Amino acid sequence: MGETPTPPTGIARFNALPEATATVALHEACASSAWGSKLLSRRPYATAEELFAASDAAMAELTADDLAEAMAGHPPIGRPKPGDPTSSREQRGMAGASEELKAEMLELNLAYQERFGHVFLICATGRTGEQMRDAVKERIGNSPEQEREIVRTELGKINRIRLTRLLEEEETA
């Protein structure tokens, strides 16, 4: 009769996670505690798209301090956290870069960090080292306000990728 469709397995498992476990999983996706709290408070989700929409809405609401907290969870491009498969996977485009390009990225990262007070953040998945270098060169001339909104957009892209992986990993767990 009026049976309710069962949510996809990844979403159902995410919805069923104990709050502490879900908090840890969301913190691994994004270091902003405000973002994670907003996503937790909106559970259960019917679909992955609903979760992504909640992520986007939460990202749009983050304050400058919340964004800074989120960025603190990201290593500089070209220097993934040792032992962290997520940052290594996302920065794969730098893995085969020449020593010259790696040195140039280090210099650019430092200049960017001096100018804006935080790491250069870009959704690195699928980008080459050269594309990341070109992006930092282009963005270093932005105003702090412009850059904050670009960072917000890039974090949103990263969060969607990481949430997708979280749901897929749950399905195979």
Please describe the topology of this protein.
Layout: H1 9-16, H2 19-29, H3 33-41, H4 48-61, H5 64-71, H6 85-90, H7 92-95, H8 99-116, H9 129-139, H10 144-172
Describe the structure in brief:
The chain is mainly alpha-helical and 173 residues long. It has 10 helices and no strands.
Describe what this molecule looks like in 3D.
This protein has 173 residues and is an all-alpha fold. The protein has helices at 9-16, 19-29, 33-41, 48-61, 64-71, 85-90, 92-95, 99-116, 129-139, 144-172. The model has no long low-confidence stretch (mean pLDDT 88).
Task: Summarize this structure as a short list of keywords or feature phrases.
68% helix; mainly alpha; globular; 173 residues
Order of helices and strands: HHHHHHHHHH
- Helix share of residues? 55-70%
How confident is the prediction overall: mean pLDDT? 88
**Structural Rg:** 17 Å
The outline comes out as: globular
Decide which structural class fits the backbone. Answer: mainly alpha
Number of helices: 10
Cα distance spanning the termini: 33 Å
How many beta-strand elements? 0
What's the story with the biggest beta sheet? none
Strand proportion: under 5%
Q: Show unreliable segments.
A: none
